[in-house]
Amino acid sequence: MSDKDYSNMGERIQSMVEDAVSSMDFEQLNKNITGSIQSVFEELNIDPDAVKEKVSRVQESAGVRYHYGSDRQQGKEKAARTPQTTAVAKYTKNPPGTVSGVLCTALGGVFTGIFGLATVIVGMLGMAIPGFAFAGNIALASIVPFLILSLIVLWKGLSIRGRVKRFRSYVNTIGKRSYCQIKELAAAVGRTEKYVAKDVQRMIENKSFLNGHMDVQKTCLMLDDKTYQQYLDTQAAYQQRVLEEKKVQQSDREVFSSSGIDNPELVKAIEEGNSYILQIRRANDAIPGEEISAKLFRLEALIKKIFEVLKQKPDQLPKLRKFMNYYMPTTLKLVRTYQELDAQQVEGENIRKSKAEIEKTLDTINLAYEKLLDSFFEDAAMDISTDITVLENMFAQEGLTKKHFDNVK
């Protein structure tokens, strides 16, 4: 096939994708892509039959694999089958301090008044009666400690009552929810978030909130173990994702590093492959569907493996270059279209059907990449097969075959 023919094929592939996107009719796209892949493989002396057979098997199972819209329905059915559990109390009706706060305030107030009045009277007598000064000082020395103690009890009572009042305000703010942001509680009581975070933590410790938990950052109050466990699971998943992303980034740096490579065409191909992977990954991050994500993760892994092998076999670059020129832009266009369709608020039949067709086309492209990667090892496989044949012939000449041992027995 001439360069002109390749150029025309690339234009035809791009035209097929653009026509499908503009018309929102992807039904024939997968067949056309499959046909173009077979043509390219034939030109590259790669057997296309294996890809064709795998594509057929995957598409035959499409009824199982493509079930858009069913997740929500399955969730509703599961919820309908799940028995309702008894509501668990989230907080106590009478938090610690409900009674003691009133008592401390009352007693502290009464005794503060008594000892305060006694202090004033003794002081006035000491100033009015000259001979009473010494006795007055002794009396004050006995009364003042009780006055201070009464003030402390009064302050403690007021503090406890204030905490109980804030607790009830927190409860009213939370309502029937199982969690609440600390900043929302702070706004309700007119305090700083730092103050409220400490306040809530004390209430958790004294069991005002019966099953209360705070997040690590002290920004959210969770009122039951189930919600807290979900938070812990989310945190664990986040930490795992961070570790995986670091591993992926390290892997990317190793695979797509062009350090020490003198071939400018290979360096260019590596840079293009890296750019392509990053764009696919960004689109994948924006698409929540698990099945489409699995296909895109598979595509990433295949492309990375191809470039990893390509560094060891740079003579295979022409195969990859032709394939990249045709199908990398095509795949990226399809993924972005899928992303746009998936972002629609209302998903009708046409959108579901288009997404399913795009997924099937991605299966086709993934299988084609698998076959391309496999073709890189054809020469090595032939050499191994030849070596095995020679070795078997040598064993036969020396009488070391299985048939020979059977005759000896």
Summarize the structure.
This protein has 409 residues and is an all-alpha fold. It has helices spanning 3-23, 29-43, 49-60, 62-65, 70-81, 100-128, 133-174, 182-189, 193-205, 225-255, 264-286, 290-312, 317-342, 349-375, 378-397, 402-408, and strands at residues 179-181, 213-214, 220-222.
Describe the protein's architecture and organization.
The protein contains 16 helices and 3 strands. With 409 residues, it is mostly helical. It has a 3-stranded antiparallel sheet. β2 and β3 (220-222) form a beta hairpin. α1 runs antiparallel to α2, α3 runs antiparallel to α14 and α7 crosses α8. The chain is elongated and about 130 Å long.
What is the strand and helix layout of this fold?
Elements: H1 3-23, H2 29-43, H3 49-60, H4 62-65, H5 70-81, H6 100-128, H7 133-174, E1 179-181, H8 182-189, H9 193-205, E2 213-214, E3 220-222, H10 225-255, H11 264-286, H12 290-312, H13 317-342, H14 349-375, H15 378-397, H16 402-408
Antiparallel strand pairs: 1-3, 2-3
Helix pairs in contact: 1-2, 1-13, 2-14, 3-14, 6-7, 7-8, 8-9, 11-12, 11-13, 12-14, 13-14
Distance between the termini: 60 Å
User: Helical element count?
Assistant: 16
Mean pLDDT: 77
Rg value:
39 Å
Strand elements, count: 3
Series of secondary-structure elements, N-terminal to C-terminal: HHHHHHHEHHEEHHHHHHH
Strand order of the largest sheet: 1-3-2
The helix content, as a percent range, equals over 70%
Largest sheet: 3 strands, antiparallel
In one word, what is the shape? Answer: elongated
Poorly predicted sequence stretches spanning 5 or more consecutive residues: 58-86
SS strand fraction:
under 5%
Q: Strand pairing plus helix content: what structural class?
A: mainly alpha
